[in-house]
Predict the 3D structure of the following.
Amino acid sequence: MISPSIPLRNCLGSRSCRPLALPSAVPVAARQPLRIAIIGCGTAGPAAACLLARLGHHVDIFERASPLRPVGAGLLIQPTGMHVLHRLDLLERACSLGHRINHLIGENTSGRRILDLSYTDFAPQTFGLGMHRGALFSLLLDAAQHEPLVRIHAGVDISHIHQAHTHVTLRTHANQLLGPYDLTIIADGARSHLRTQVQVNAQTTRYAYAAAWCVLPMPTHARWQSTLRQTYRDTRSMIGYLPSGKPAPDAEPTISVFWSLRADKIESLRTAGLAEFERRVIELDPHAAPLLIHLRSMDQLVFATYYDTICDRIHHHRVALLGDAAHAMSPQLGQGANLALVDALNLVDTIALHAPTTEAIPAALTRHDADRRNHVAFYTRASRWLTPWFQSDLAPLALPRDLLMHPLSRIPWIKQQMAQSLAGVKTGIFSSYRFDH
Ligand SMILES: Cc1cc2nc3c(=O)[nH]c(=O)nc-3n(C[C@H](O)[C@H](O)[C@H](O)COP(=O)(O)OP(=O)(O)OC[C@H]3O[C@@H](n4cnc5c(N)ncnc54)[C@H](O)[C@@H]3O)c2cc1C
């Protein structure tokens, strides 16, 4: 088991001394219990629900899926996300399920090293945690279900949000009216249509490239241990391998394999069939062959498209946007779920400190928005800038990438900035959350 003692010890203590985490005691008696609706039970939703309920607030989570289940494969949890899991008292269980990741190694098909990053370049004893999405989801869901003040309503698809000055009401697709609520949190993911109903300007585009994922048994060979690996052929072909731990305590360890492809080629890959898929994968990276023995059907592949969303603000009056609804991005930097968790923590800490009554909610959301601005802006822009170098039709970019990226990353200052970016703590080109050793 990985010791959770903490890669994170206060790893998010401050950005230029601005606290991210709630300084422990906010007098509970001073708070008015709020009625809060959360739309979406993915990553941000249940995390926020648990933390809000622990402050004494009443939380309804509405999730359109029924039964509740995770979608997708492995996720890399960064020190930032681990900090939030620690606040949720879930880190120890997460570490017992996840696989410790120390390195990120990227090579082209000629074996030339392009990326070679280590968490210890960020700070000693830090690491990433490769997790099966089902494991993270079950931890968060279980924690929410055990909070007496949280009610989870599965199979409820919210279609409308209506804000009045003092409250928010919701309407379902089945035309049921819900509420009133003092605060509503939109955590409905990258394809959010609810954010268009609040006064937020969102620029959203779908990436031309997508991914096919599968979860396979974790190999025992040393090559795969503790390392997130990627192999590239120019910018149009890529395969990645993330050891992703156990989906459940009694399950076998897994590795998530990720194959990059154009979104408009998903159907033709499906119809080409398993043998052709395996041929293409092994042609790109022969090391994949022993893993693919366990791939028995194309039905084991999960296809995911990505969105890029930048919002001019992530709140309006009594409504806050969390996670992908506020800032969807390509998974190239492995930050989406981590940002969603930090959003949830920051929102709850801000409510605790600045919204003792329902009247104070709009001002508290303005503060939350300001707190999150730099961190979110760095990663949305970095992911927008970086993705074409790894997943796009701009094949000529591969030449400068392959020639320059690794030599540049050996310059100590650049190496440290890249390691901080990986760890999830950057808040600007020259700024980051402080890490206390
Ligand atoms: C291929 C891929 C790989 C990734 N790898 C990583 C990684 O390594 N590390 C990382 O940090 N992130 C990664 N991400 C990103 C990460 O998955 C997301 O950023 C994260 O899940 C966002 O969480 P969320 O709570 O905002 O949204 P989601 O987890 O998408 O949850 C949204 C929920 O809202 C529900 N919903 C939607 N509309 C409604 C409605 N109208 N009414 C009720 N419910 C609704 C949905 O059913 C869903 O359950 C990856 C993403 C992809 C696609």
